Amino acid sequence: xxxxxxxxxxFSQGDELVLGQIADTNAAWLSGELVSLGFDVSRHTTVGDQxxxxxAALREIAGRADCCVxxxxxxxxxxxxxxxxxxxxxxxxxxxxPEAFRQIEACFTARGQPMPAxxxxxxxxxxxxQRLDNLWGxxxxxxxxxxxxxxxxxxGVPGEMQAMFERxxxxxxxxxxxxxxxxxxxxxxxxxxxSALQELIAPLPVPAEVAVGFRATPxxxxxxxxxxxxxxxxxxAEVIGQYRKVLEKWTYCxxxxxxxxxxxxxxxxxxxxxxxxxxxxxxxxxGGELARLCGQRRWLPLALTFSDTATLLEHFxxxxxxxxxxxxxxxxxxxxxxxxxxxxxxxxxxxQVEDSRTDGRVRLHxxxxxxxxxxxxxxxxxxxxxxxRMVAAAHALDFxxxxxxxxxxxx
Length: 411
Ligand code: ATP
Ligand code: MG
What we know:
The protein is of the alpha/beta class. About 40% of the residues lie in helices and about 25% in strands. Helix 3 packs across helix 4 and helix 9 runs parallel beside helix 13.
């Protein structure tokens, strides 16, 4: 008989969350991990900094879930109530944990600061719980079983929470639960909207057990396939192959199939790094978004942001009024990329400029100048300025990625 997957829940605590001051990205991240690991995630609960409400929620979860990951409220301040709520909910004394105390003290010593007295509170853990060391911050976590549920309590800071999940929880879960990890394959696409994508895939015959989902951001749409653990690998490959064929034109990366994956800048960067090459860029329409997407990457020594295209062209001693002539703005973009490359002594110069806007519609020109010559691409985009910035930056990086791949394949 087929066994049902164990039921997991995510419990987030903090006034900031219920008052809408921050979004609950911890719950989203944890759910994604738990689903991939083979749990059925049935519920997210969010409660503010109120002892009675926290206590009641913990008791309810203990009676209905097999596993619950809780985040937040482990800090030293009076609004950090998690350990106290656990103590009250399950009738467990809070006991001083000398090793937790030593670690908290060591964390302050490493920062060259004395430990404030309030931090002693973080070393009080519910008796019978197992401490989860926090090697990334001060608040230790803990784990315990109550009624049918295995609880894990982690700090709220996303970086610490994720690191502790990887270190302590991911290896612990298979020792307690027999789950069947699911396989997730994501097609990351650019230049096509959700509805158009839906129409493209509608005719594909997908087995009912395969869940198909979409996730859209202003610049890209991701199509996700979730295969049950027992799904035959040959049929999986067939389904993935069908999607790949239909979506090929729009896809910049397929995640979960063992190919290079990551953000656009990572994919372009991989190719630059493998050739020991560097790139400089100049942007105007995107107002710094292109530089932000590239972050502080080793292959990018210089990123210039200009308020508008005319100022960018002027910087490269080019005459913006020449854009009306033969080849127009595109030729100017190529020349700017070439001058940028030369003046900064790098392998590639990347420039993106625009023609004048009408009714929120803009014609963009991306140009790349490198060891294999110059390339340019033009494209019309429409939307509010914020969306335009994000989409234009993604297109510039995709243009770069495609040209680097083509020049590598051609060499
Ligand atoms: P600290 O020692 O920092 O107080 P903590 O375990 O008490 O750790 P919180 O005080 O609840 O954690 O949250 C610390 C910070 O982490 C919050 O200010 C917020 O920026 C972030 N954070 C907390 N919970 C979440 C969440 N569910 N999603 C995203 N960010 C969160
Ligand atoms: Mg706190």
